[in-house]
Amino acid sequence: MRVNAPRFARVAIVGVGLIGGSLAIDCRANGSWGRIAGIGRSQANLDVALERGLIDEASRDVAAAAGCDLVILATPVAALVPMARRLAPHLAPGCIVIDVGSVKGALCDEIQAVLPAAVQFVGTHPIAGSEQAGAAAARAGLYVGAQCIIVPPHGADPAVVARVEQLWRAVGGVVQRMDGADHDAVFAAVSHLPHVVAYALAATVLERDAARRRGFAGAGFRDTTRIAGSSPEMWRDICLLNRTAVLHELDHFQTRLAAMHIALRDGDGAALLAEFTAARDALEGDHE
Amino acid sequence: MRVNAPRFARVAIVGVGLIGGSLAIDCRANGSWGRIAGIGRSQANLDVALERGLIDEASRDVAAAAGCDLVILATPVAALVPMARRLAPHLAPGCIVIDVGSVKGALCDEIQAVLPAAVQFVGTHPIAGSEQAGAAAARAGLYVGAQCIIVPPHGADPAVVARVEQLWRAVGGVVQRMDGADHDAVFAAVSHLPHVVAYALAATVLERDAARRRGFAGAGFRDTTRIAGSSPEMWRDICLLNRTAVLHELDHFQTRLAAMHIALRDGDGAALLAEFTAARDALEGDHE
């Protein structure tokens, strides 16, 4: 155990996938969690979680969260608010609820708004493995060295926030507190925009003559489009839930691309070189 | 030696970088090349090539190509035509000249146009390591398994084309003959467009708040922007020399991106999902 992990006697994981399941493995291993209930829609996935020992009991009924002192919301982001609403009547006063979604800000406000006032909600976002690959993909040590963003709501109990931070630190996470809107602006740029761009690039290059073009594609194409292999449903939801910030970054990207288009169309080598050089230097951090 | 390598008694490599230097290593190793002259602008780079034994003699004077039966044009693409023009008066009748540039089509026509009629020119493009990293970066085996595109000019001597193909096969290349315009259309899509996109993405994400954003960037951003670390000069030149085809692909990309922008702006999840799904499926070859 790296640090003293906060004790929870009874934990519910709602959505026992890569993120929730991996957290269960490590918190069981560090001895900080008592009994673990898994809640989900898919009985097959819950069966895998039970067989692998990630959870002690499985249920498709949100009532299984009754009596828990910690609830992990680890469903796809679009299901977080509806799920929190369904869980609400069953949650014990003082229960700590965290989510692990890729969007915070307004989404976390909505989650908190549907939870009872006596429940302590803290938004979190561990930056680790974005694919929701199910209980079969859960593994020990997923969070070692991973950044874990903590977004405490206004007026959050500092002791509760500290417990949540300790929970992530105890599994190896590098904890960083952020404002929700700031989180969404930063991740719109460094994560959400690159996914939109990768989808657009893969579609453009392969919309005609795909088999042949794939045969000529080298490492450059493979790397730039790798994340276009991600779940379309998940990224639709993330983009919609962080729409304003993603549109803002997309606007900037389209403007930058239009400038390159004009430079190329006009055969303006100096302008093109300036664009490419600024990008290369920014990437390599030459000007800091 | 994998296949019988064609013999050349005296070879000149113009631009002894990763591409030309690696070819020299393998052709010296397979015993098919006699004396090798290195021609270049940088004495320091030529000295490295001499020290490493890539070449037998070094010169900053194109006259060193006199008497060669094979000349490899391995300069940056923008220098190919001017260099061919300067070499022209020194080339022996029957000499085979190949280039190794990333753009073929009109560029190869121009190269051929400035060479004497008695010289045999064949365009080639080995798909291996795009950075012009100098003689120090040359290494054995660079071309093993690499695709090598062969673009014979109209009316090329079939025996000469066959010799050039054997040259690349003998160092492990997988040879494929293509029409120059077809080559440029395919590589505009699978290589040149991804570079433009990577530069635009890196610049957009890092134009503000770069140090902090870089700290939050995960594998997705790193992969999508890796090739934005490539030489801005080289990619300016490739884009300008293949301008029509790159603009064509860029148009398609901007149209695709605009459709995603509209879907996101309108909160049209179905349209966004259709775009992302088509991209993911195209990437994975699900519909073939």
Count of β-strands of chain A? 8
Fourth-tier CATH superfamily name of the largest domain in chain A: NAD(P)-binding Rossmann-like Domain
H and E string of chain A:
EHEHEEHEHEEHEHHHHHH
Which regions of chain A are unreliable across 5 or more consecutive residues at pLDDT < 50?
none
**CATH topology (level 3) name of the largest domain in chain A:** Rossmann fold
Hey, roughly how much beta strand do the residues of chain A contain?
Answer: 5-15%
Shape of chain A: elongated
Derived from helix and strand composition plus strand pairing, the structural class of chain A reads alpha/beta
Oligomer: homodimer
CATH architecture of the largest domain in chain A: 3-Layer(aba) Sandwich
Which CATH C-level class of the largest domain in chain A is it? Alpha Beta
Rounded to an integer in angstroms, the radius of gyration calculated over CA atoms of chain A is 21 Å
Structure overview:
Two copies of one chain form a homodimer. Chain A is built from eleven helices and eight strands. With 288 residues, chain A is an alpha/beta fold. Chain A folds into two domains: 8-178, NAD(P)-binding Rossmann-like Domain (Rossmann fold, 3-Layer(aba) Sandwich); 182-284, 6-phosphogluconate dehydrogenase C-terminal fold (Orthogonal Bundle). In chain A, helix 3 packs parallel to helix 4 and helix 6 (180-206) packs across helix 10 (243-265). Chain A is elongated. At the A-B interface, helix 6, helix 7, helix 8, helix 9 and helix 10 of A face helix 6, helix 7, helix 8, helix 9 and helix 10 of B.
